[in-house]
Amino acid sequence: MQTVVTAERLWDGTSLHHHPLVLIEDGKIESISSHESAQLPAGARVLDFPGATLGPSYFDVHFHGAAGHDVMEATPQALDTIGTFLASRGTSAYLATTVTASLDATLRSLDGLANEIAKLPQPGRARPLGIHLEGPFLSHAKRGVQPQEHLLAPDIAIFDRLIDAAHGHVRLMTLAPELPGAVELTAHATSRGVRVSLGHSNATAAESQAAIAAGAVSATHTFNAMRPLDHREPGILGTVLTNDNLYSELICDGIHTEPEIVRLWWRAKGPDRAILVTDAMAAAGMPDGEYQLGGFPVQLKEGRATARGVLAGSVLTLDRAFINFIKFTGASIEQALRLLSSNPAAMTGLAHRAGTLAPGKSANMVAIDSTGRLVASIVGGHQAN
């Protein structure tokens, strides 16, 4: 059966269309036209969202888990539960993000995740498009809750073992650029098609710039687990905020970053290089209690996820981050949509699979009202909420 989706406007990833009519068949977009120029196909199911803006579904490039499950469980049950939860919140794609763990445990998780990534997409369920390695090549000084006993110095041979275990599905790796061997590993990872993101780092500006010159393209949860800005040593943060070519993640939950800092970041990075992420862990969507993050316990209380008194990821969802970002900055709906769709897709090299709406692509879209609130989530042509 064909499905027709209509709304007030549609942002397709590059352009804005008024009074759109989107025809969907077999989970894919058949055409995008306007109400004025096209007729409704006979017998089609119609989903009409008056006053709303349609846009590409959200793509979270830094995501550890939700709905009581951690991606490092790497089981069909865990990822199916996570996928159903994310789809209901407007997210159709994510990078399954690991945390630092023993090498053996990480290799097992990567193999399991790779097997799940290789499966066909399921309608109404978000899916991982790849893997984000957050560790083990991180700074001890800025490790956050990453287990220090499993942190490693950058090592090309170990990196290659991780890539092989993941069957080539690693798309992004967080790396502290000041560590010995980090520049060489950045160049090697880039040559193997893995994007490098600077983070969990106490790097100077010069050390950060060296990694960027070697191929680093992004920054992990900017401001968090980073050397503070200093007017005589700008450090990694000063470099991230002033490099116009570098993408930059931000956790916009009002806990990891205050509204004033969100506005500063937005002015520095602008609509082309800013990316909103959740850094969500298993407690997202769950009541207060104890949950797991890559094998260690995390306590959730009143919206804050902590381990040993330190923030341990978040319980944020991208639909909430969207509302927060608009509220904190005054950005338009179309500007904000870029930060959750086309920008992460471009940064990861996955623009052919996420971040835009066009004929032939999967029918993954959100409908948003004028305040940024999620009205509907459509994944694979099926309404997920």
From TrEMBL:
Q: Where is the Amidohydrolase-related domain?
A: 56-373
GO BP: N-acetylglucosamine catabolic process
Required co-factor(s) are:
a divalent metal cation
Give the CDD domains listed for this entry: NagA (cd00854)
Query: Any keyword Hydrolase?
Result: yes
Protein name (Swiss-Prot/TrEMBL): N-acetylglucosamine-6-phosphate deacetylase
Where, by residue number, is the active site? 279 (proton donor/acceptor)
Which residues of the sequence carry a binding annotation for Zn(2+)? 134, 200, 221
Claim: Metal-binding is one of the keywords in the record:
yes
Which GO molecular-function terms appear in the entry?
Answer: metal ion binding; N-acetylglucosamine-6-phosphate deacetylase activity
EC main group: hydrolase
Residues noted as binding substrate in the record, renumbered to the chain: 145, 224-225, 232, 256, 311-313
Cofactor notes: Binds 1 divalent metal cation per subunit.
Organism per entry: Telmatobacter sp. DSM 110680
Which keywords does this chain's UniProt record carry? Carbohydrate metabolism, Hydrolase, Metal-binding
Might you give the EC number(s) for this enzyme?
3.5.1.25
